[in-house]
From TrEMBL:
Keywords for this protein: ANK repeat, Repeat
The protein, known as: Ankyrin repeat domain-containing protein
Keyword Repeat found: yes
ANK repeats: 81-113, 114-146, 247-279, 280-305
Amino acid sequence: MGCGASKAPGVEAAAPLTGPVSKDGVSPAAKAAPAPAPAPEPAKPAKPAVSGPTLLRLASRGESVGSAVNDGAPVEHVREDGFSALHLACARGDLENVKALLAAKAPIDATNNSGWTPLHWAAKNGHAEVVDVLMAAGAEIGAVTDDGRTAVQLTLDGDVMKLLGPHVPTRPPRKSPSLERLADQEAAPVEPSADTPAPAQEVATLTGDASAAATVELCTAAVNGNTDAVTSVLARGASPSEARASDGFTPLILAACGGHVSVVDALINAGSAVDATNSFGWTALHWASRNGHAEVVQLLINGGSKALNTPDGRTPMQLTYDSDVIRILADVVPPGGFK
């Protein structure tokens, strides 16, 4: 054998490079190879199929929101005035929309710009079925609006009153006022409006009956809850309806305000006008309701009181926080609610 280079067994000699090569040493074939694909960008969160404003429009028109909330529409979205889709559905009484929004975890006690919750709106507009659903879902029954009203004080609907009434905490009845200063009594949950303040009662200014002395005696006995004295004055001919304290308070209003059941009963049986008003348009029923005197409220209703509105539009129901009073009044709501 010669001394030339040998190759390893089974390994063929490499074929010489063929084909053109560029000046940089890279073949055209290599240059033609596709560039590697760029790395994918992070996925962006998917937008809900239905936007918040669209959901609000559906709710405000009473159109079904079920598909929208199933597609992830933001149930917490609100308008500039603070109304959510749940507010709008409750105000309209759209029961199915309310259920769909609650199932989608819509904030049940969210307030609008006036402090009103969905329950406030459902109660005000008399939507008893919606109120029932909201209560079952845990709505705050005692929530107070910015102007200090609860749901039961906003409604004029008897069915709503019956739903809410048992859940209103009973407060101790207000104490009897003095004749000299009725306004000195313990503050009640709802005060008369600024233009109808609780008036001072001065014995010296009691007027109205033919006998000033009998008027003074009757009004004094009524405000103090003295049934025997009231009966005695009435037996001597004093008129329970004509006798008036200052600011137009009748003996019946004075007795009702103090929760004097037996005196109220005696005055009603003597023919006292149950719906007579004082100078501010408040009846005995308004005062008894305001001060939480349930037995007196029942007597007045049995005696024919019509649950009139005050001059500023409030019903006896809207003046009370007492659950017993609410239950009694709910049973006498006229068809279609208070007007």
